[in-house]
Write a structure and sequence with these properties.
The chain is of the alpha+beta class. The protein folds into two domains: 3-132, NADH Oxidase, CATH 3.40.109; 147-220, 3-Layer(aba) Sandwich (NADH Oxidase). The chain contains six helices and seven strands; from the N terminus they run H-H-E-H-E-H-E-E-H-E-E-H-E. Helix 6 (198-213) links the parallel strand 6 (187-192) and strand 7. The radius of gyration is 17 Å and the shape is globular. The model is unreliable at 57-61 (pLDDT under 50).
């Protein structure tokens, strides 16, 4: 599966099969995590078979089942930590999808006390991402139009439009899609609007845009 196909096929999944992730796939994920952490000063972890982390009232209310594997997005406290975790967390989400796995971004329904995550004194746990074999492949959700998430971009180049379309398929908190893209020459700007977890969403959306645009001669402003 190509990464652009993964963007189109990936949907949030809360119900998982009682099936372990094979060692071969675990190693692929761990290798990518090691690379991300080393290059970006993060401490992302893959936690497997943790049956306590989602044993909460909110998790049951959110209808999570067999959610025992997850990525813990951890990093040193800094101004852009949430955006970094969104960006690289989504990179792991799409890698998981290409590996035949399913995922779901999680914030409130996760227990921050009963888990096996290592968090150093100068670090922060931003959120987690469930990963495993979904009972289903999830469902499509309603998305905004190009015009609703852009500003003064009617005559923008095709690569910009492709990038925005990929960003529209990005997961965002409560499917808010509270972002706005604009372009001037080869400079691209994306601004987040106010809302819960929009800093994380910003990183996710940026990663999707870069995949969709498929160019190297533009810059983020």
């Amino acid at each position: 599966m190509e990464i652009k196909d993964a963007i189109k096929q990936r949907h949030s999944v809360r119900n998982y099969l009682d099936k372990p992730i094979e060692e071969e796939k675990v190693n692929i994920l761990l290798k990518e995590i090691e690379k991300i952490n080393k290059e970006n000063d993060l401490n992302i972890q893959l936690v497997l078979n943790d049956k306590d982390a989602f044993d909460t009232m909110l998790a049951h209310y959110g209808k999570f089942t067999n959610a025992v594997n997850y990525f813990a997005l951890v990093g040193k406290k800094c101004r852009d930590l949430e955006e970094k975790c969104g960006y690289f967390g989504e990179k792991l989400v799409l890698l998981s999808q290409m590996s035949g796995l399913n995922t779901c971004w999680v914030a409130l329904t996760f227990s921050k006390k009963k888990n096996r995550i290592t968090i150093n004194e100068d670090e922060k746990l931003v959120c987690v991402i469930c990963v495993g074999y979904g009972a289903t492949q999830g469902n499509n959700h309603k998305i905004k139009t190009f015009e609703q998430v852009t500003k003064n971009a009617q005559n923008s180049p095709l690569w910009f439009k492709d990038g925005v379309q990929a960003a529209l398929l990005a997961p965002t908190s409560l499917n808010q899609q509270k972002f706005c893209f604009s372009i001037e020459n080869n400079k691209v700007r994306v601004q987040r609007k106010w809302g819960h977890y929009t800093k994380i969403d910003l990183g996710i959306v940026k990663y999707h845009f870069e995949i969709g645009a498929d160019l190297t001669d533009y810059v983020w402003e």
